[in-house]
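User: Hi! I'm working on a homework problem where we have to compare a predicted structure to a textbook description. Could you give me the structure for the chain below?
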Amino acid sequence: MKASNSRQFSSVAARTLKVVGIILILSALLDCIVLSLPGESSDLLNRGWQLAAATQIVDRGIIPLIGIALLMTGFWVDSSSGVSIERRNVGLDLRFWALLISSLLGLVYLSLVPVHLNNTRLELKDALAQVDQEAGQAEGQLEAQLKSAQFKTQVEELKSQRRTQIATLLEDDGKLQQALKSPDVPKELKAVLEQSKKDPKALDKFLEQQAQELPTQARNEIRTRKQQKEKELRTRSRNSSLQTGITSLLLAIGYITVGWTGLRSMGIMRFGRRKN
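Assistant: Happy to help. Predicted structure tokens:
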């Protein structure tokens, strides 16, 4: 009685593993096929679409492998419980098709590795060129602005405002002492405030020096933004290459190992051995 119940339970467990495995395999394959269909035929040559499709397919790559493992485990449970597995025709054996799909998926994921790495490299190259072009345009606009009369007028207005602010500060000894002790006030400005008591021209020299440094500061801001964007792009490209590339390679190894080992155990792939 116990043996009968145990065999019945094993049969139910094996059938459950097979059904769940088949569902996982088919649903994942359908999902990958849908993701591989471009919105338009021109999208096939679009590098951005290729990168997005490869990333999504790799992210879902573990699901069919789990399904194949569950399916093969179901057959193993049947074999362990004493259920004989007849195999008259290889084409009707679910194990053969599961292992064949595993082998094909392994080749697909293996081919995705160089394709994705190359697309990532080209995408980074184009993005860096775009950033360089935008920075060049910004510098060109800046140089044109620096030569305009409007910029000179703005500089004179800024100098006048700062001169008024500092002159007001110098007239109030309490605020002056507070500014000299404040950590938020730059050291250069503190030195000018102290020198202005003895030399009134020190303020004019300071304001003139600041006005002359404005173009350099503006150029440095453009270059700093360019460097930050380039760093972000390189980091993003590196992370994408490592994450998707390594995951795809691991999936390829897993699928090929399962598929080829299983087909060999079924006597379908002999790897050069001959039967005597």
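For your comparison, note the following. Residues 201-265 form the longest helix (65 residues). The CA atoms of residues 139 and 219 lie 7 Å apart. Good luck with the assignment!
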